[in-house]
Write a structure and sequence with these properties.
It contains 17 helices and 20 strands. A seven-stranded mixed beta sheet has the order 12-15-20-16-19-17-18, with helices on both faces. 38% of the residues lie in helices and 22% in strands. The chain has three domains: 122 residues, D-Maltodextrin-Binding Protein, domain 2, CATH 3.40.190.10; 92 residues, Periplasmic binding protein-like II (D-Maltodextrin-Binding Protein, domain 2, 3-Layer(aba) Sandwich); 223 residues, D-Maltodextrin-Binding Protein, domain 2 (3-Layer(aba) Sandwich), CATH 3.40.190.290. By secondary structure, it is α/β, with parallel strands linked by helices.
């Protein structure tokens, strides 16, 4: 731009200058208001005590545990509360008996999961309650049990965990021998004693008891119940050694964070999402060898379309969990096991009218077709199962294709039943059976895996067209099943399912 253009530009009038200054005055006023708000917030928010606090937790699942999602529910609440003061949390596991010394010797800053008692209050400061528990009596379903006064329990064999306190009144009755107790090393040992019938009652937090039964006794513990009347409803706290140089600031930061969580609504959401993640973490997942949907790959890892879909659903729900090789069972065993284990799921499974009332369903994942496969040289194309004469048919035990043949009243002596699809593929390729009843895509996958010439075989008739689903035991909470379905549908809307199908399935 030339100098003449600059010097010749019109200068603003006095009135226009006034108009230009008005926004500047408002900006100045706004800056003062923001500064005042920040000062007020600084007065209301505790000083940041440290960039990071070290938390040590014992095993008290689902509240605390080194291997739990977010190290347990209480550690998750604590981390979020401290986040409001800009403090990070690092958690690690330690036996409960070692935690007080670790805090007093400054090997850790804080610990969560503690109930107030007079002895500890002399040494430690307590936060406000992070959560309230509920101690109840667990017992066998065959025992008709109810109680009003603790003295009524004198005739029962009660299991207790060594070193635990169960309320002052209960402990006093144990000391004066009004109640009889059998000490065990752990809550898990006490539950096993209930299952075996060597004790009648065991007082433990309701969530802890349910967690341990589902995790360690998924089948043997199905007959264990708990009474609805609570022995106690203790509050669970964070503790910090009173001699810690920042003890009061830490407590102030935690309490402030708990208040803020309640105000903005994150407290309830965090509890729900963490309990959901912990439930999924301990869920029994069952699958079978049924490629390309679920199978063991060359590295011995579980892979396939349905496995990837399940793991992505769990990731969306905040759970990092893999389906392990130990979760792969013969189909018939997996099918019966998922009906007996309360917190269990199976995949992938065809949904049929006979199966529908047995499970809760999430899906559909993908459409599938069960067919009869035979060598082209036999010229069996178009023939139904009852038109194959004395042809021998390979089937997987209790697979949907095998169930369809039963409906056709195919004689048992014409069926070769196995648990392994590789066996059927080899028998068909070597002419030891004339046909194989199985999923169309799956049968071709296994035939290719053994090196058979796929062009020499064909699907001669369709037995059933269904869809593959994830099926849950009827006792899994409907809220859990509903979240799986919601995430699956969101994955479909985003195109994630489409991409996974293209990766694992042949072009249609």
């Amino acid at each position: 731009m030339s100098a003449s253009l600059v010097t010749g530009a019109a200068s603003p009038s006095r009135e226009s200058t006034k108009r230009m200054h008005r926004p500047l005055r408002w900006l100045g006023i706004l800056a003062l208001l923001l500064s005042a708000a920040q000062n007020l917030a600084a007065q209301e928010t505790p000083d940041q005590t440290s960039a990071t606090l070290h938390n040590v937790v014992g095993e008290f699942p689902p509240y605390t545990g080194a291997k739990l999602h977010k190290q347990g529910l209480l550690s998750a609440i604590l981390a979020e509360a401290l986040h409001h003061s800009g403090i990070q949390l690092q958690s690690q596991g330690l036996p409960w008996s070692e935690i007080p010394d670790a805090l007093m010797n400054r090997k850790a800053d804080v610990s969560v999961g503690w109930v107030r008692n007079r002895e500890r209050e002399a040494q430690f400061l307590y936060s406000d309650p992070l959560i309230y528990g509920e101690t109840v009596f667990f017992h066998h379903a065959d025992l008709k049990f109810s109680w009003n006064r603790l003295e009524e329990l004198a005739y029962y064999r009660i299991g207790v965990t060594q070193g635990y306190s169960y309320t002052d009144r209960f402990d006093d009755l144990l000391r004066n021998n009004t109640l009889t107790a059998s000490p065990h090393a752990s809550d898990q040992d006490n539950l096993e004693s209930l299952i075996e019938g060597t004790t009648d009652l065991f007082p433990v937090d309701r969530l802890v008891g349910e967690f341990l039964l589902e995790s360690h006794f998924p089948q043997r513990g199905v007959r264990i119940r708990h009474d609805e009347k609570p022995l106690a409803e203790p509050s669970l706290h964070l503790i910090v050694d009173a001699g810690h140089p920042r003890a009061e600031e830490i407590i102030k930061s935690v309490n402030h964070g708990l208040v803020q969580m309640q105000k903005v609504g994150t407290y309830n959401h965090l509890i729900k999402s963490t309990l959901l993640a912990l439930y999924i973490q301990r869920m029994k997942i069952l699958t079978e060898e049924y490629a390309p949907y679920n199978h063991l790959n060359e590295s011995g890892q579980v892979a396939g379309l349905s496995i990837n879909i399940l793991q992505q659903i769990m990731q969306h729900l905040g759970v990092e969990r893999k389906v392990s090789p130990d979760d792969v069972y013969p189909w018939a065993r997996a099918y019966h096991l998922v009906q007996r284990v309360p917190n269990a799921a199976i995949l992938a499974i065809s949904k049929t009218p006979e199966r529908e009332p047995l499970f809760q369903w999430v899906g559909p994942i993908v459409r599938s077709r069960a067919v009869l496969t035979a060598a082209k040289s036999l010229k069996l194309a178009g023939r139904a199962p009852d038109q194959l004469g004395n042809a021998r048919i390979c089937v997987i035990h209790e697979d949907i294709a095998a169930q369809v043949l039963q409906r056709w009243s195919i004689p048992e002596d014409r069926l070769f039943t196995t648990n392994n699809p590789h066996t059927c593929a080899n028998m068909l390729a070597k002419g030891r059976v004339e046909a194989w009843a199985y999923g169309e895509i799956a049968s071709r996958w296994y035939m290719k895996a053994i090196g058979a010439d796929l062009d020499s075989f064909e699907s001669i008739s369709t037995l059933e067209e269904t869809a593959q689903y994830i099926a849950f035991n009827r006792q899994v909470p409907t809220s859990v099943v509903g979240r799986f379905q919601e995430v699956l549908e969101l994955m479909a809307f985003r195109g994630e399912l489409r991409k996974l199908k293209a990766e694992f399935l042949p072009p249609q």
